[in-house]
């Protein structure tokens, strides 16, 4: 809707589709998409001709035009990100350019919660922790709680206290998983810096008595692509068509693909990712898409948000009093030192 | 030790070093239990106030300022490391420094990236805590003579004579040494301020301090410190074994207490075993050798007040820790730290030594020699 093409240097992006001025026109040396990901929904395929033509068109566009558009997109992205969730596209509906679909599985069964899978539409370049916060705000379960070290302590207010505490049987902590090859992989990365690719499935499971290692149990909901709501029942599958890897790419760059499940994009080897100007086409197809569940929630999600109501004014008065005391002591100490000299 | 009826409450004298160390260790334990910046600043202020009120006019009494400076360096280093290598913490991004993407096997290490207010505040709190602990030890070092502390150590620890001597006297010796080196530089017309002067004098200071500590240990050794006298070889071996066992058990027990995941056996039981072993070594050693003390430091009312003041402060922190989480304010989400009233009152009790400890003798008075060899 907002923009027609973007060149996103993912390394430089903050939130959303803020574009860096990458060496755009020189980089599009791979006009054809990466090899097929075997598990990707077949609905992808019919889009490709339009991508190819658009890309050719894109290649002919002047550098100045691209730069101007990138600037506009950057501005729009900033506005969007500052406006918070203003661009809350539906997970089954049309996506604007620069948005991705991801599924977040949260399993707090061991804390009395349930296991849930939530499909979310977020700006490309969203990090794992931003995704968690987004989920909390969309489900109304509050934002996740972090420890001062940055360790994730609680999701949906569970557990109410403690943070990755060690007991005699092991650690009780939120283990981080991501989908790779249809299986859960134990995540070794920092959710604050890990950027999500389109179609990514992320999982969090509260592990009781875990070792804090890859042997810890995985979420009870498997990372199946069926967790994504159907986009368009009318789309016919076509064979042999390329799409993007499910998470990460061969270049090590998170591939910031565009609209979920319906389009493909190419991860360029230079570390820049091209987001194709497919918006018009995509929305044209997807306006007909119908899907009921939004967001998909399997099991129950605890609605207990940690309600913290402190009287901040009272705290400031206490702090002022203590620092007044410290100032008196320091002054007295200074006077004493002067006198003794 | 032991009460001495002849000691006046108010006459200038040096307080028993054990009392100062107990007070300082209790304050340091308070600091270790909290990351509340308000309380940490108050701890530093309390320690500084007592030091200024009751320090003697001796070379090492100025070490508090050096420890404060060291604390500032610690805070700065902690912040810089957080910005460069710290774990990336979600929150409000302050600025972003260039990020290096590390390969998969280096997961968990980050180089550069977004720097959030939350991460900086967490780093500041932690640096402040270490700085407060350093200030407490600086207070103990500047309030009592390291030599008198050596003398007051229980006989059992004489076994570890040289190591204990160096451990207790290195910091004060370094302070004395650095003053001498700076004075020497000034006399030669060179600047004693700035980074260059500091780097030029760092090596001589460290070398001098270590030399002094080793020389002190050697001289004490030659005068019989750490000797067992005429005890038989088997008795000596047994007591050495008991001391070793006791020290190891106490070390294990301390770690066990700090680590909530440790098996229960490695906590209180290990500490108790260590204490019993050390006590046994004390008895075994005491039987075989007699030791006389020249002018023993008395332990009377002011000593009790000073050490109890420290314990009251520590107790208040334990109580506050049980009642809520005011001791560890959340940095994510960032919140205004609460000021627990009980802890503040406890820390104010910790300033009582500034009034109840006897004044130290000045150089003019001859009440007590400042440096007493063991």
UniProtKB/TrEMBL annotation, chain A:
Q: Which UniProt keywords apply?
A: Membrane, Transmembrane, Transmembrane helix
The record's region (Disordered) falls at 242-265
The transmembrane segments are 64-84, 316-335
Which species does this protein come from? freshwater metagenome
Name of the protein = Unannotated protein
From TrEMBL, chain B:
Can you tell me where the transmembrane regions are?
20-52, 64-85, 105-125, 132-150, 156-176, 240-258, 264-284, 304-324, 336-356
Q: Provide this UniProt record's keywords sorted from A to Z.
A: Membrane, Transmembrane, Transmembrane helix
InterPro entries the record matches? ABC/ECF_trnsptr_transmembrane
Keyword presence, Membrane: yes
GO CC, sorted alphabetically, is: plasma membrane
Q: What compartments host this protein? A: Membrane
What Pfam families does the record tag this protein with? CbiQ (PF02361)
The UniProt record lists the keyword Membrane: yes
Q: How does it sit in the membrane?
A: Multi-pass membrane protein
PANTHER family referenced in this protein's UniProt entry, alphabetically: COBALT TRANSPORT PROTEIN, PROTEIN ABCI12, CHLOROPLASTIC
What name is this protein filed under?
Answer: Unannotated protein
Q: Which organism is it from?
A: freshwater metagenome
Organism phylogeny = unclassified sequences, metagenomes, ecological metagenomes
């Amino acid at each position: 809707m907002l923009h027609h093409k973007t060149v996103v240097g993912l390394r430089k992006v903050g939130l959303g589709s803020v574009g860096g001025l990458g060496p755009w026109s020189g980089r599009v040396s791979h006009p054809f998409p990466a090899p097929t990901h075997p598990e990707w929904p077949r609905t992808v395929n019919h889009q490709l001709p339009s991508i190819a033509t658009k890309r050719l068109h894109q290649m002919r566009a002047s550098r100045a035009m691209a730069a101007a558009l990138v600037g506009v997109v950057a501005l729009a992205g900033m506005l969007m990100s500052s406006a918070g969730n203003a661009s809350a596209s539906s997970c089954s509906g049309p996506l604007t350019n620069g948005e991705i679909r991801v599924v977040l599985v949260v399993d707090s069964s061991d804390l009395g919660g349930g296991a849930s899978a939530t499909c979310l539409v977020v700006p490309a370049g969203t990090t794992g922790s931003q995704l968690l916060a987004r989920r909390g705000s969309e489900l109304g379960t509050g934002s996740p709680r972090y420890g001062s070290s940055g360790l994730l302590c609680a999701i949906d207010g569970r557990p109410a206290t403690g943070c990755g505490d060690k007991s005699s049987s092991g650690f009780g902590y939120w283990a981080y998983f991501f989908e790779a090859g249809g299986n859960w992989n134990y995540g070794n990365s920092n959710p604050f810096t890990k950027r999500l690719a389109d179609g990514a499935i992320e999982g969090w499971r509260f592990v009781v008595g875990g070792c804090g290692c890859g042997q810890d149990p995985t979420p009870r909901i498997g990372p199946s692509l069926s967790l994504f709501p159907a986009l368009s029942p009318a789309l016919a599958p076509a064979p042999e068509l390329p799409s993007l890897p499910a998470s990460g790419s061969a270049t090590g760059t998170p591939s910031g693909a565009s609209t979920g499940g319906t389009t493909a994009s190419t991860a360029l080897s230079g570390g820049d990712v091209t987001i194709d100007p497919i918006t018009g086409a995509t929305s044209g197809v997807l306006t007909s898409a119908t899907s009921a569940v939004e967001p998909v929630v399997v099991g129950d999600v605890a609605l207990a948000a940690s309600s913290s109501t402190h009287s901040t004014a009272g705290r400031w008065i206490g702090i002022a009093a203590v620092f007044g005391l410290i100032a008196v002591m320091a002054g007295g100490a200074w006077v004493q030192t002067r006198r003794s000299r | 030790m032991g009460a001495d009826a002849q000691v006046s409450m108010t006459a200038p004298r040096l307080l028993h070093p054990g009392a100062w160390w107990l007070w300082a260790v209790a304050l340091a334990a308070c600091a270790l239990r909290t990351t509340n910046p308000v309380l940490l600043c108050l701890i530093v202020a309390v320690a500084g106030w007592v030091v200024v009120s009751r320090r003697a006019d001796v070379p090492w009494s100025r070490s508090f300022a050096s420890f404060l400076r060291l604390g500032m360096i610690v805070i700065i280093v902690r912040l810089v490391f957080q910005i460069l290598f710290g774990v990336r913490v979600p929150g409000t991004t302050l600025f972003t420094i260039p990020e290096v993407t590390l390969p998969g096997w280096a997961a968990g290490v980050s180089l550069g990236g977004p720097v959030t207010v939350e991460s900086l505040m967490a780093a500041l709190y932690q640096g402040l805590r270490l700085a407060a602990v350093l200030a407490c030890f600086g207070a103990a070092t500047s309030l009592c003579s390291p030599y008198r502390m050596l003398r007051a150590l229980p006989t059992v620890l004489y076994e570890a004579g040289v190591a204990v001597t160096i451990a207790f006297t290195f910091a004060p010796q370094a302070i004395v040494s650095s003053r001498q080196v700076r004075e020497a530089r000034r006399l030669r017309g060179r600047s004693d301020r700035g980074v260059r002067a500091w780097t030029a004098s760092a090596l001589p200071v460290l070398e001098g301090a270590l030399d002094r500590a080793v020389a002190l240990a050697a001289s004490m050794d030659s005068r019989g410190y750490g000797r067992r006298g005429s005890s038989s070889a088997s008795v000596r071996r047994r007591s050495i074994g008991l001391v070793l066992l006791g020290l190891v058990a106490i070390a294990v027990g301390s770690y066990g207490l700090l680590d909530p995941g440790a098996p229960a056996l490695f906590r209180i039981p290990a500490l108790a075993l260590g204490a019993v072993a050390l006590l046994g070594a004390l008895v075994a050693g005491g039987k075989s050798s007699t030791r006389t003390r020249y002018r023993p430091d008395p332990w009377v009312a002011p000593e009790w007040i000073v050490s109890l003041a420290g314990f009251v402060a520590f107790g208040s922190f334990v109580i506050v820790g049980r009642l809520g989480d005011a001791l560890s304010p959340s940095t994510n989400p960032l919140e205004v730290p609460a000021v627990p009233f009980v802890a503040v009152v406890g820390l104010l009790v910790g300033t009582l030594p500034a009034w109840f400890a006897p004044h130290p003798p000045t150089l003019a008075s001859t009440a007590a020699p400042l440096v007493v060899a063991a």
